[in-house]
Write the structure tokens for this entry.
Amino acid sequence: MKDKTPEDRLQPISTGAANLVFVAPAMLLFGLFVLFPLLSAVYFAFTAWNGFSEPVWVGLANFRRAFADTVHLASYWHVTLYILGTLFFEVSFGLLMAVLLNSDRFGFSFMRGMFFSPMILSMSAAGVLWAFVLDYRTGLLNSVFDALGLDFLVQPWLSQSSTALLAIMFVSGWKFAGFYMIIFFAAIRRIPRNLYEAATLDGAGPVRQFFDVTLPLLRQNMMVAVLIAVTGGFAGFDLFFTLTNGGPFNSTEVPATWIIKQAFDQNQLGYGTALTVVLAVVVTIISLIYLHISERANVIRY
Amino acid sequence: MRTCITSLVALGAALVLGGTALAQTEIRVTHSMSGGSNRAAFDAIVDAFEASHPDITVKQIVFDDDLYSDTGLITQLQSSEVPDIYFQWAGFPVQRDADAGYARDLSDVLGEGDWRDSFSESVWTEGAGTMVNGDPYIVPISLDVTNTIWYNTDIFAEYGIEAPATWDDFVSLVKTLADAGETPIIEGNNELWPLGNWASHIASRVVPPAEYEAAFSQEGPFNTPGFLRALELLEELHDAGGFNRDMPGLGADPAMAGFFQGAAAMHPIGSWLVGSAAELAEDDFNYDQFDTPIIDDSHPLKDSVIGTATGFIIHARAEHPDEAIEFLKFFTAPEQQKLWAESGSLSPVAGVNETADLDPKTASVAALFAEAGSIVPPPDTTYPVPVAEAYYQAAAYVASGEKSPEDALTWLDETIAVIGQQ
């Protein structure tokens, strides 16, 4: 029997048109549920359409309006503030808890579990729950302040522009800090003990050790955490929808809540679609930056 | 192509239905009555109809209120299996549905004759929003006052105050209540229409009618002395400490619940409050209503009521239009309307409200309609929704002290310029 040549072994299982048969089902579904809606959305973005009548081509009018619509522009600013807030409330607090709860002593694993537990709740359930806590008249928070005699702290938290966004950031922090804690906790456990022993011998205290040993070695995880927070911030819609739905006075309006209002509450599906096209472009740019940075973050420093 | 597919689908459906249930015809009715006393009455009328028409069954497709108007209805109207009958508000939505070809022209049955004449005459006037170019497109089933001022009679009695006769009386009673530490008015305005409706009613009472019409139709500015006056009236209430502090973030339903729990002395909202009272209020809760007091005695619409009709439209592509008409004739017959009115809905059928054993609150709303000099429709069912919403937001700014009336009107005209002609 003749030996197989290397060329024979590299021969593909099938060639040419036959391959198409295998990819056709996937391509069909992808085309039907991703490509077609995507392309038709681009078309509807250039129309005036209330969903009831036939769409009317209006050229760039929707996009001109989008860039003159102050609430729309402000919604991107609110998302940016929200992301900065999540970096503080979620990432920083998660890191702090990971360091403080990094111990094998009795009860610490239980406490870590407690901090992680809000992650299990769905986002909208958390929103509805906190809407009750933050309610002006009957909410838990104001009742506590009232009972303590701190009347000046009894505020309509979700009904005034100055506190609504902050309240949402706080709830988001409550929900996600545990998640970041677990990421950092796992990473801290992977740092070799001898680095700390060496630092102790050199006379570094716990704070110095944190800034000079722990933090630099968590760089890669920090990068991942920040990127998750940024992309998650843009996707953050549920909390805004359940807690304030963009109000009061559009002070917590994010792109998604504004799009829903324009498209469905006010029956301007053409304009709403144009806003989603703008959002898609922004998110694509951020994703490209994300990929660019995350490729460089995978460098081990020890 | 589309009609070809539609007729194929219809043919298929006819074959399937014909094969399985020869004698039964099912008419599909979609609406947003998900509960309350109205729904109970509706169910009872449907049962009575099915009993007297054994060959027809009525299938109800029910959505929650907000869902119905956002996506629930429109999805059904465009589907291949459309509802025979759907609930709609009179005014702009009827016009839009007629233009888009969803609403069936009812001239053949309601153009003239006994059925048409059985309704109150006001239902078939230009401003009622039931007709498009003079042709009827909706069968009215209810008249709603979309804003009147409900008040807690016990709180009023406690401070020795009565329903006000003039706007100045109204402002001074708000001051009395606020000074005593009460919340005078509770409103849940996170969706803008609750206060917006009232603010529009106030505007319609002080803005010259032509100016009002022009502004909402995008043919003139809002920044006029008339609208300035309207917003200054809201500012007066804000300055007097009139509104609940959480008004901008509170929902309409929680606000109503708050009123029934005694959280505030007054709650400006529509006549549907009566239908919710059975579920939300304790038996010993005492309340009544007065309409916004006369503001400008020389204004032609000084004693208007803000209100609208709601009704049922027959889909232009309805599978069983004749049975649908049969059902709506049955539904609007005086006997059924009496039951309907007694559940808290104001009947548009002539003579029914006078003979039915109305709940005293419904009777007071009926009297409001009967005594009104004119009826003003709410902007969000009359004019382009984005324009109405923008005015509602301007009113909300002023009522919460976020913007002065001048700034709010400047903001409003700028915002409407960006929206573009609707």
Remarks:
- Chain B has 19 helices and ten strands.
